[in-house]
């Protein structure tokens, strides 16, 4: 009986190439954002383009926790605090603020996937290296254009690692945000409601 020849070791199978959706000529719409299959979690829509979120860093997660719980502590009954929920600005823009304060009557049930810009009274973006341009320029401009009255931009203090909160309010005359203050160790403001958050607590989280 003749032995079977020894075959060469098979090459390991290569990883399948991701099949990204091909955008239509005019770009995606908000409806597409919620109906396209297999999109990664927290995909956003900016100017008709899908924006995928990079893996979250530890400091980003801690800042979101601190802000979310701090805002809830003094939120009046007519407001709710939400984390990482899509806000529909117009047909081709559905960003996802890191934290939002919305009107309570906009909450219609536990299966909601989005809120309308008119229901948002505060949008917050925590800046990450990969999203810095969007968080500092693109999103604030779009939030202002949509009439969201308050915007916070949160940066990481390079020396302490603590959050630095830049507070903006919408100017009704120009329709643009004006800088209303920068807060390092504590943010204490009266708009959109009395808020007092000890930012140094991030060291203990």
Taken in chain order, the helices and strands follow as HEEHEEEEEHEEEEE
3D shape:
globular
For the sheet with most strands, the description reads: 6 strands, mixed
SS content category: alpha+beta
Q: Could you tell me how far the N terminus lies from the C terminus, measured between alpha carbons in angstroms?
A: 71 Å
Beta fraction: 25-35%
* Secondary structure tally: strands: 12
Number of separate helices: 3
Q: Which value, in Å, is the CA radius of gyration?
A: 22 Å
Extract low-pLDDT stretches.
none
Q: Give, in spatial order, the strands making up the sheet with the most strands.
A: 3-5-7-8-9-10
Mean pLDDT, all residues: 91
The portion of residues assigned to helices is 10-25%
Describe the structure using short key phrases:
3 helices, globular, two-stranded antiparallel ribbon, 17% helix, alpha+beta, 205 residues, six-stranded mixed β-sheet
Question: Describe it for me?
Answer:
There is one protein chain. The N and C termini lie far apart (71 Å). The model has no long low-confidence stretch (mean pLDDT 91). The relative contact order is 0.13. β8 and β9 form a beta hairpin. Helix content is 17%, strand content 29%. It has helices spanning 30-33, 58-74, 132-145; strands at 44-46, 49-51, 79-83, 86-88, 99-103, 114-116, 120-126, 150-156, 163-170, 177-183, 186-189, 195-198. It has a six-stranded mixed β-sheet with strand order 3-5-7-8-9-10, sandwiched between helices. Strands 1-2 form a two-stranded antiparallel ribbon. With 205 residues, the chain is α+β, with helices and mostly antiparallel strands. The longest helix has 17 residues, at 58-74. The chain is built from three helices and twelve strands; from the N terminus they run αββαβββββαβββββ.
């Amino acid at each position: 009986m003749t032995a079977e020849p020894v075959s060469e070791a098979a090459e390991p199978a290569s990883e399948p190439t991701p099949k990204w959706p091909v955008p239509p000529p005019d770009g995606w719409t908000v409806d597409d954002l919620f109906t396209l299959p297999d999109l990664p979690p927290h995909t956003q829509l900016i100017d008709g383009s899908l924006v995928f979120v990079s893996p979250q860093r530890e400091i980003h997660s801690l800042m979101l926790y601190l802000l979310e719980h701090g805002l809830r502590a003094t939120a009046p009954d007519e407001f709710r605090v939400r984390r990482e929920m899509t806000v529909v600005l117009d047909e081709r823009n559905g960003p996802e603020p890191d934290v939002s304060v919305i009107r309570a009557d906009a909450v219609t049930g536990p299966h909601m996937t989005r809120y309308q810009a008119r229901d948002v009274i505060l949008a917050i973006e925590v800046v990450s290296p990969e999203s810095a341009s969007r968080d500092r320029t693109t999103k604030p401009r779009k939030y202002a254009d949509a009439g969201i009255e308050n915007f916070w931009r949160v940066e990481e203090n390079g020396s302490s690692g603590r959050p630095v909160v830049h507070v903006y309010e919408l100017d009704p005359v120009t329709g643009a945000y004006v800088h209303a203050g920068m807060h390092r160790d504590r943010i204490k403001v009266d708009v959109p409601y009395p808020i007092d958050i000890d930012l140094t607590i991030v060291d203990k989280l």
